[in-house]
Amino acid sequence: MPHSVSSQRDTVDRLLVALAKRTMMVFARIDHAAGVASTGLALRPTEVMTSGNAKGGTAPMQDSQSAGIDLPLKAPGANAAEVTT
User: Fold this and answer.
1) CA atoms within 13 A on the CB side of 54
2) How many CB atoms lie within 10 A of CB 61?
């Protein structure tokens, strides 16, 4: 996974802005760390964004509806366990 010099949250925020500029609809921003915290456990900041574009995603689904398992597109955002430069 590519690394960013920014924080996990800033990187995800920038990704969401970039997607919006490209007419990609953001369907969900799932904060796994927040969900885990509700159980009393800990997890480094970890999110998954789902996004797509009906114009781009329709053709693969028309060809094979099983493409829906891969759509919408998903992008992870997480803090690395250890940052090395």
Assistant:
1) 0
2) 14
25-56 pLDDT, tens digit per residue, is 999 999 999 999 999 999 999 999 999 999 99
Please name which of 35, 32, 34, 57 lies closest in space to residue 46, comparing C-alpha atoms: 32
CATH superfamily of 8-78: TT1751-like domain (3.30.310.70)
The full set of domain ranges for the chain reads 8-78
This prediction's pTM? 0.73
**Structure letter (DSSP) for residue 51:** E
Task: For residue 27, give both structure tokens.
Answer: 């369907």
